[in-house]
């Protein structure tokens, strides 16, 4: 059977693949340290789990409205007011099966064949593929490490064509941790001010931010910009609820209504039990977030210092999220690199480096290539201090063999 062309355009999520590979090696008794995972290593807080148990026990186990229960939509609208000073009506909010699904639904609603979405690189691996699945064209603009991995408004302006439908802003970013300031966001917003182009603000790492930095949302800039912005968020990262699959979005009522129509003809409602647990997450004690963030902050220092002490590696301090994205270009010029590229392939240094580290150091990292930079690798520091310290030691001794 010949499969649809659409499926040939995309590839499996490399982050999920690295995590699966590390887990399968561990299951075979091989001592691998995984830096692949994009999820907090903490358990979901007890009060959220209790709410799920209560939902099961009280029979909240049936279909809900496709776009989510009114109680969760209200909790999301209240969260936007409380945390972001953004007012949304309930009709401007929808609940989806994870943040990834929110972006997927949005692309299905927005794009016709050949429509373009501007995506700053390095980017979350799923954006381009989800655009392709909607028959759109991802238009990648590159940022530089020396500019803190942030793109300039002029680059966005230069990439805009008559087919541009949206610009993606992911701040703090996966994989770089870079977070835009309010002033930078204002300048980005100005690039689309007089055009029929949406800003998509993916705020999934909003609450994981360091050094007293204040999270900024492009929708706060003005009422006009808010009208052009769709905000995506979810409970996965903030409350360590990745498996519960609840994402949400807010913005233009017509877009939201159509997202719900797609959902009504595809997944139907997000899991009822997860929705009730998310009501509790958003309305309940928010101090659980701060506790996780202080652990991430401690690990951030360990990992950034450790990576910068490895010959040929250089790593910026991420402003937010829980990823380090070190440059490896120099290490790939060491005299021992030839044996690595002969063995693992010369087309992609980040893939060869990841394979080398897995085999030589028993450490699983994700190549930068699928994030849009082959000169970097991604390490998640959502793992224990001890494993980070041991993993860094292993990476260092593997790299020292190449010098
Ligand atoms: C930038 C970004 N957006 C959205 C998501 C989606 O998260 P989820 O589908 O678990 O809610 C992720 C997950 O890794 C992410 O890194």
Question: Could you walk me through the main structural features you see in this protein, from its secondary elements to its overall organization?
Answer:
- With 403 residues, the protein is α/β, with parallel strands linked by helices.
- It folds into two domains: 152 residues, Aspartate Aminotransferase, domain 1; 222 residues, 3-Layer(aba) Sandwich (Aspartate Aminotransferase, domain 2).
- The chain is built from 15 helices and twelve strands.
- Helix 6 links the parallel strand 3 and strand 4.
- Helix 3 packs across helix 11, helix 4 packs parallel to helix 11 and helix 13 packs across helix 14.
- The protein is globular, with a radius of gyration of 21 Å.
- The model has no long low-confidence stretch (mean pLDDT 95).
- Bound molecules: pyridoxal-5'-phosphate.
- The site of pyridoxal-5'-phosphate (PLP) has 13 residues, from helix 5.
- Give the fraction of residues assigned to helices: 40-55%
State the fourth-level CATH superfamily of the largest domain.
Type I PLP-dependent aspartate aminotransferase-like (Major domain)
Q: What is the tally of beta strands?
A: 12
Domain module tally: 2
End-to-end distance:
50 Å
Q: Name every ligand kind in the structure.
A: pyridoxal-5'-phosphate
Q: Which ranges are low-confidence, i.e. pLDDT below 50, for 5 or more consecutive residues? A: none
The class by helix and strand makeup works out as alpha/beta
Tally of separate helices? 15
> What order do the strands of the largest sheet run in, or round the barrel if closed?
2-8-7-6-5-3-4
């Amino acid at each position: 059977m010949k499969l649809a062309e659409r499926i040939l355009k995309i590839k499996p999520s490399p982050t999920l693949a690295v995590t699966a590979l590390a887990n399968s090696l561990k299951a075979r008794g091989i001592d691998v340290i995984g830096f692949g995972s994009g999820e907090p290593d903490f358990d979901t807080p007890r009060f959220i789990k209790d709410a799920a148990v209560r939902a099961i026990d009280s029979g909240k186990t049936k279909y809900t409205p496709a776009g989510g229960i009114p109680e969760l939509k209200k909790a999301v609208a209240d969260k936007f007011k409380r945390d972001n000073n953004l007012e949304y009506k309930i009709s401007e909010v929808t609940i989806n099966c994870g943040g990834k699904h929110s972006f997927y639904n949005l692309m299905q609603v927005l794009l016709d064949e050949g429509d373009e979405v501007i995506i700053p690189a390095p980017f979350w691996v799923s954006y381009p593929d989800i655009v392709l699945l909607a028959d759109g064209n991802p238009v990648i603009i590159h940022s530089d490490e020396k500019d803190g991995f942030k793109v300039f408004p002029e680059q966005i302006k230069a990439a805009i064509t008559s087919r541009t439908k949206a610009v993606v802003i992911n701040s703090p970013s996966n994989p770089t941790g870079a977070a835009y300031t309010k002033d930078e966001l204002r300048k980005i917003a100005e690039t689309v001010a007089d055009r029929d182009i949406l800003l998509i603000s993916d705020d999934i790492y909003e609450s994981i931010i360091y050094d007293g930095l204040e999270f900024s949302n492009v929708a706060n800039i003005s009422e006009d910009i808010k009208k052009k912005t769709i905000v995506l968020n979810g409970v996965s990262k903030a409350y360590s609820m990745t498996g519960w699959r609840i994402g949400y979005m807010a913005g233009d009522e017509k877009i939201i209504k159509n997202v719900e129509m797609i959902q009504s003809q595809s997944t139907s409602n997000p899991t009822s039990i997860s929705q009730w647990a998310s009501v509790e997450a958003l309305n309940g004690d928010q101090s659980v977030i701060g506790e996780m963030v202080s652990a991430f902050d401690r690990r951030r220092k360990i990992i950034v210092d450790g990576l910068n002490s490895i010959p040929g590696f250089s790593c910026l301090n991420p402003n937010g999220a829980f990823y380090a994205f070190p440059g490896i270009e120099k290490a790939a010029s060491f005299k021992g690199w030839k044996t690595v590229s002969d063995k693992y392939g010369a087309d992609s240094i980040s893939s060869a480096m990841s394979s080398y580290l897995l085999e030589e150091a028993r450490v699983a990292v994700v190549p930068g290539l699928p994030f849009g930079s082959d000169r970097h690798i991604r390490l998640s520091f959502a793992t224990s201090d001890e494993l980070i310290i041991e993993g860094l030691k292993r990476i260092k001794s593997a790299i020292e063999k190449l010098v």
